[in-house]
UniProtKB/TrEMBL annotation:
Residues 40-163 form the Gamma-glutamylcyclotransferase AIG2-like domain. It holds the Pfam family GGACT. Transmembrane segments: none annotated. The active site is at 110 (proton acceptor). The lineage of its organism: Bacteria, Pseudomonadati, Pseudomonadota, Betaproteobacteria, Burkholderiales. PANTHER family: GAMMA-GLUTAMYLAMINECYCLOTRANSFERASE, TROPONIN C-AKIN-1 PROTEIN. Belongs to the gamma-glutamylcyclotransferase family. It comes from the Bacteria. GO terms for cellular component: cytosol. This is Gamma-glutamylcyclotransferase family protein. GO terms for molecular function: gamma-glutamylaminecyclotransferase activity.
Amino acid sequence: MRRCRPCRRPPSACLNSPPLRTATVSIVVRTEAGAGLPWVFVYGTLKRGQSNVQVMAGARFAAPALSVQPWRLVALRHYPALVREAGPARIAGELWEVPEAMMAMLDRFEEVPALYTRHEIEVECLAADEAGSLAAGARLPAHTYFMPAAQAAAGRELLTGAWPA
């Protein structure tokens, strides 16, 4: 398969922006049936101020959030990876409201299933959002993208649960 030289992605998923591999880990929070758009929790390069925030164009930032369960978070060369093992800290990130049509694009960006697999977890909102749809302290079921431990083995453990460290 042909891949973009700078980002190593298939041409259809190429953002043509350095560094070489700038994916991020995301957590997708689903709303109740018919209640609204899905929520996405990001804690890597999709966060505001990070290298791939442009991927979130069309989504609405809602609030900062944490995973309820502590997980292992490792820093690879240009992006973090969440490992499906108990870790030392809850994972810090941001909640975004995302149009349903963006979900398939985010899956392609995260290279599911080749690089990440999706599993459900629970996240906690740290502040109310401006739209009034989330309250501080609200806990939401979520899907997240985990990287297999063997693929993340070269990374440096982030003991604080936050990236960048």
